[in-house]
Design goal:
alpha+beta; OB fold (Dihydrolipoamide Acetyltransferase, E2P); de novo design (two linked rop proteins); 5-stranded mixed beta sheet; two-stranded antiparallel ribbon; 7 strands
């Protein structure tokens, strides 16, 4: 999956891809910016590709590319979905290191999330922001930052609890909650649990208010554990119309 590209010289590009078996790979695509390039738009972000590399001195070189699916085409027709997709690509880029280690779970999650964003779930379409929330929670969980949504993340007291602290790592009890910790109602907690495990039927008919609260908590949680803000997140359209 192509995550991002950078210009190199007059006609080349450096591409960053998330691969099935070798984690994140950076490689040079020679002459790809020329109109005569045989690779054309296959190496644009959101492209799901089958690619072959030639070993280079510093960076590998793209030798052959076959397009499997272009998520960019349908996403470009929907600004809200497109901006959500950009956050997904940026998150994957941040969570997977350039060390050549396999990142199969992150790869599968990203491809599945983009497909859900474009095609909907088996239970019907969901708002793009809800798909993003599910992706962020699950991607962070794979990376070792799963939020605690049952017991207090600080003292281990059994829940349910009424507060969620992004910095503490999940729900907290009354005694452990830091100052300014936002309250958490049962509906929002249920939505967060469903998104974390990918239970799409349980998210059907979720009120817009619960979606809004859940998205705010997920956004704060993700950016805290990624250490710095996601640059693409402010461009997301936060539309939570009640249904």
């Amino acid at each position: 999956m192509v995550l991002r590209t950078h210009k190199l010289g007059e006609a080349d590009r450096i591409i960053t891809v998330l691969s099935r078996g070798h984690g994140k790979i950076r490689a040079v695509a020679r002459g790809v910016r020329r109109t005569s390039s045989r690779f054309g738009g296959r190496l644009e972000p959101f492209s799901h590709i089958d690619v072959q590399f030639a070993v280079g001195r510093n960076l590998d070189v793209v030798a052959q590319v076959e397009s499997l699916q272009s998520f960019g085409d349908p996403l470009s027709l929907d600004y809200g979905a497109y901006t959500v997709g950009q956050v997904m690509l940026e998150t994957a880029d941040r969570l997977v290191l350039d060390d050549g280690e396999p990142a199969l779970q992150q790869y599968r999650l990203l491809v599945g999330a983009l497909r859900t964003l474009c095609e909907g779930t088996t239970d019907g379409p969901r708002p793009p922001v809800m798909v993003l929330d599910a992706y962020l929670l699950r991607a962070l969980a794979i990376a070792g930052y799963a939020p605690s949504l049952g017991t207090c993340t600080r003292c281990g007291a059994a829940g349910p609890h009424e507060w969620f602290s992004p910095s503490a790592g999940g729900v907290v009890c009354r005694a452990c909650r830091p100052p300014g910790t936002p309250a958490l109602d049962a509906g929002t907690l249920g939505l967060l649990r469903a998104l974390l495990v990918g239970d799409w039927p349980a998210t059907r008919d979720t009120p817009g208010a619960a979606q809004r609260r859940a998205s705010g908590l997920v956004s704060a949680f993700a950016q805290w554990h990624l250490d710095r803000a996601l640059r693409s997140l402010p461009h997301v359209e936060w539309d939570f119309a009640d249904r």
